[in-house]
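Re-run with default settings, no changes from the original entry. Doing this only to confirm the output is reproducible before filing.
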Amino acid sequence: MIQEQIDLNFQNDKKLALWKLSSSNCQADKNVFLTHGTFSDKKVCLGIGEYLVGKGYNCWVLEWRNHGSSSRTEEHCSFEMIGKEDMQRAFDYLFNEVNLEKIDCITHSGGGINLTINLLTYPENISRINRIVFFACQSFGAGYSLKNQVKLFLGKYLTKAIGFLPAKLLGRPHNEPYQFMKQWFDWNLSGEFQSDDGMNYGREMSKIKIPILSISGSGDYFVAPPKGCEMFLLKFENAENEFLNCVQETGFFEDYDHSRLIYSRNAEKEIYPLALRWIEKS
């Protein structure tokens, strides 16, 4: 597999890293856009990216600002800035410079939140996307239980006290600043997915009629619990959408947690083929 870093200019001298994963067997009309979630970078997408390249797909992996090989910025960032600015810069490149007519999308965690924000902000992108796969994606349903509400409350104010969420202590590539995580905590504490200027994304999500497969892991108890992922998917109000919870009781190899759902040997064996089957329905 060939990995090519493409630097996309944004904010004067700043750059976003967009990685093209490909091989000599990839077909020009088979393209997938991928992006990671919080605390992460392109690595979490490499497993499924390599799998798709082996099936003839060109994969385009976006690393958000302040993540991976993208530039660091001093300003306070938010999910909305990633969805409206970073993701749109990548789509501008793919649709207007590479001249792709259509693309499929696969996201992990917050990447799906940002994709949703992008499509509601730039509805012209909706017609350019064939199908979507969300891995462990939710924005307002983590607090469905009292136990999780307490975790969210404590997590928010501990993160505020130290200024960032110390994900590196858990082996993740990036810590996230409080100002970035505040939006996610607030959405989940309130149960409302809305912008800082008052736009209620949750009420608008039904406008996105792209077929979506949402995959959750039964071992993901807090960040994207199955209940929260299902609640998020239902907001799109599309009968074509499908929800899949990966749990041993129904024959999966394990009760997948937040990361292993998309980046593990077991996921490669039994979940990647399901994602491929979904995007190939079109």
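The longest helix spans residues 79-97. The two ends are 25 Å apart (CA to CA).
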